[in-house]
Design a protein that fits this description.
It is a single chain. This protein has about 375 residues and is an alpha+beta fold. Strand 1, helix 1 (about 10-20) and strand 2 (about 30) form a beta-alpha-beta unit. It has three domains: about 1-70 and about 165-190, 3-Layer(aba) Sandwich (D-Maltodextrin-Binding Protein, domain 2); about 70-160, D-Maltodextrin-Binding Protein, domain 2, CATH 3.40.190; about 200-375, PAS domain (Beta-Lactamase), CATH 3.30.450.20. The strands form two sheets. Strands 1, 2, 3, 4, 5, 6, 7, 8 and 9 form a nine-stranded mixed beta sheet that branches. The protein is built from 15 helices and 15 strands. The protein is globular and about 65 Å long.
Length: about 375
């Protein structure tokens, strides 16, 4: 039996799909947050959903991989000074993930309400200064009220993955359940988590202002001319064989073993790879990877070893090559081990003289950090 604090919507549909695929029977009871937490502590329920990571629950349960993603923003009037949030009048919805997070992180909540509509009216009428909520949910509410989206200012706070907490008691009785549950989530996601238009604009701005000026484009184009010519003689069979060896060498490196003398080691030793590693390190952890491929998708340089030698059959590469603007912005990927949200961006590199395509540079971005520094 699971306890839910809110019933209905995408998370419930995904949960039903996951349990159907794993052939697991379940029932749901709808309870207030405090009661749902107490039920899992006392062994009266096997889990609670959908919720963000909570230290209180971490003691008695384990959180699944995300079923959904909320994009939390601070909503306020244009004249509000956010330099000292602790002094502002903050409100929240009873039983919401946002309210639990505000309390857990020491924010003074001066008022609690039952609905989002109450929050937006309180803010508009100057009864409160600030509230924290999922951006899309607020935009939908404003649309229903026939209010313009620009009624309030919205400042990015964080992405919050929502999952299911399963009690340690339940998991101890059902070895391997959480692994199976997590594996079945991806097939049940109807669409990948994606950046909205405003977020894409901010990411593009960060790239153009903070990263692209650092790239040694002359050196990159010079390397691409050289290695495109060198790789041109590779047959498909030779390329595939090289890719398979690269994958084996990459596995060795991941296990802490050496891959001396390999093609992977040779690409890693190139001057351009060293430059890319320095540039990545200089971004303050915003960039998680930088790598350059030739015009057919073969690796030319990287800040750190990639898992493949050949990228020409991967969607990021094919999308970059097929789009007129020569750009790819991928879905938001959640890394549970690092608890970071990554987006891969691909940018086509054309010859400045002939305009012919030379290759692609791929950038892995910690999108939360990029959104926080891009205004």
């Amino acid at each position: 039996m699971l306890q839910g604090t809110r019933l209905g919507g995408l998370s419930v549909d995904i949960l039903a799909c996951v349990f159907a695929r794993s052939r697991q029977h379940y029932t749901i009871d709808l309870l207030p947050w405090a009661r749902a937490v107490e039920a899992i502590k006392q062994g009266e329920s096997d889990g609670v959903f959908t919720t963000i990571a909570m230290p209180e629950l971490d003691k008695v349960a384990r959180l699944s991989d995300p079923l959904a993603l909320e994009k939390w923003y601070w909503f306020h009037r244009a004249d509000t000074d956010l330099n000292n949030i602790q002094r502002l009048r903050i409100a929240g919805i009873r039983g919401s993930n946002e309210l639990q997070w505000l309390r857990a992180n020491g924010y003074p909540v001066s008022m609690q309400v039952n609905t989002l509509q109450q929050l937006v009216y309180l803010l508009k009428n100057h009864r409160i200064d600030l509230f924290l909520a999922d951006k899309k949910t607020v935009e939908n509410k404003l649309q229903k009220l026939d209010w313009h989206a620009s009624t309030f200012r919205a400042d990015f706070s964080a992405y919050r993955p929502l999952g299911v907490y399963f009690s340690n008691r339940f998991l101890n009785r059902n070895t391997g359940f959480l692994h199976t549950f997590n594996q079945e989530i991806s097939p049940c996601l109807k669409q990948p988590m994606a950046l909205d238009d405003a977020e894409q604009i901010k990411v593009k701005r960060w790239l153009s202002e903070s990263l692209l000026p650092r790239l040694p484009m002359d050196d990159i184009r010079r390397a691409l001319r050289h290695y495109n010519a060198e790789y041109e003689s590779l047959s498909v069979a030779e390329r595939d064989q090289a890719d398979q060896q690269w994958v084996r060498d990459y596995a060795l490196i991941r296990n802490g073993e050496a891959a001396a003398g390999s093609r992977l080691a040779e690409v890693s030793s190139r001057d351009l790879s060293a430059r890319l590693a320095q540039i990545q390190a200089g971004t303050g952890h915003i960039v998680s990877e930088l790598f350059v491929t030739g015009k057919t998708g073969i690796s030319v340089a990287h800040s750190a070893p990639t898992s493949d030698f050949y990228h020409g059959d991967e969607r990021p590469f094919t999308d970059v090559m097929s789009q007129p603007e020569g750009r790819y912005i991928g879905p938001i990927q959640y890394d549970a081990s690092s608890q970071r949200f990554q987006v891969k961006v691909g940018l086509r590199i054309d010859d400045t003289t002939t305009s012919e395509t030379q290759g692609v540079i791929f950038v892995g971005i910690d999108v939360e950090q990029a959104l926080k520094v891009s205004h």
